[in-house]
């Protein structure tokens, strides 16, 4: 696309919040961010139950503490990761270097694919532990909705993160318009070799060496005082 570099226009343009929030990858990040809140909140608030004759609470997923820790840890990291990439999306159009944009897009592709895989693992893990949970461990069936919500939104997160990776790859394929974006951008104020004053030729004795007489009209004197303009035999 002409005038575009990895899905964004030339650096220096004004930020348009309406256009920003209408972008597919922005919508997907917000959804992933919301899903991570639901997963973390469901497990943190209602993910621990106990029997009527017990004081200590255990993880609702088959009393497997690792299952709850996985959901809490991954939910928290996904929440922070979404915020970080949303901030990067806001700053992305201001990046002048096409190489830096390329690195950001590749990071988006890789990280999103990683999160999609991790939520697939989390979905399988939580589902398995929920299926093998014993009814006697939770006779009042407390926290069932929270457990199902965590499993459901872990499943949804697989596709939102996978879609982010897909759209990131599409942005990578767009590449950069080399006519508008420098592959090795250097701030002119930091470039030691940037041109300053116009070039002037070296002068000696006040005469500009570049303004000498034409070769045909030179008055070169030889060692014996003989002129170089023409040869005379004595």
UniProtKB/TrEMBL annotation:
The chain crosses the membrane at residues 26-44, 70-92, 104-126, 146-163. The keyword Transmembrane helix applies. Residues 224-234 have a biased composition (Gly residues). InterPro entries: Marvel, Synaptogyrin. Keywords: Membrane, Transmembrane, Transmembrane helix. Its main location: membrane. It is a multi-pass membrane protein. It is found in: Membrane. The keyword Membrane applies. Pfam families: MARVEL (PF01284). Belongs to the synaptogyrin family. This is Synaptogyrin. It comes from Hucho hucho.
């Amino acid at each position: 696309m002409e005038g575009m570099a990895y899905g964004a226009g030339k650096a220096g343009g004004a930020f348009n919040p309406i256009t920003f929030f209408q972008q597919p990858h922005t919508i997907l990040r917000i959804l992933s961010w919301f899903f991570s809140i639901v997963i973390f909140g469901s497990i943190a608030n209602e993910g621990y139950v106990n029997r009527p004759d017990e004081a200590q609470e255990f993880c609702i997923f088959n009393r497997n503490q690792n299952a709850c820790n996985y959901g809490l840890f991954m939910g928290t990291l996904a929440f922070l990761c979404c915020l970080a990439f949303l901030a990067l999306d806001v700053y992305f159009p201001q990046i002048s270097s096409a190489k830096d944009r390329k690195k950001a897009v590749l990071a988006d592709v890789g990280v999103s694919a990683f999160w999609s895989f991790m939520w697939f693992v989390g979905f399988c893990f939580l589902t398995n532990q929920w299926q093998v949970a014993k009814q006697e461990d939770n006779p009042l069936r407390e926290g069932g909705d929270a457990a199902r919500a965590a499993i459901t939104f872990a499943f949804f997160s697989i596709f939102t993160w996978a879609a982010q990776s897909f759209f990131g790859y599409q942005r990578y394929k767009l590449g950069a318009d080399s006519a508008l974006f420098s592959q090795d951008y250097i701030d002119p104020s930091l470039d030691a070799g940037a041109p300053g004053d116009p070039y002037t030729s070296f002068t000696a004795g006040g005469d500009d060496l570049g303004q000498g007489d034409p070769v045909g009209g030179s008055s070169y004197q030889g060692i014996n005082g003989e002129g170089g303009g023409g040869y005379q035999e004595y």
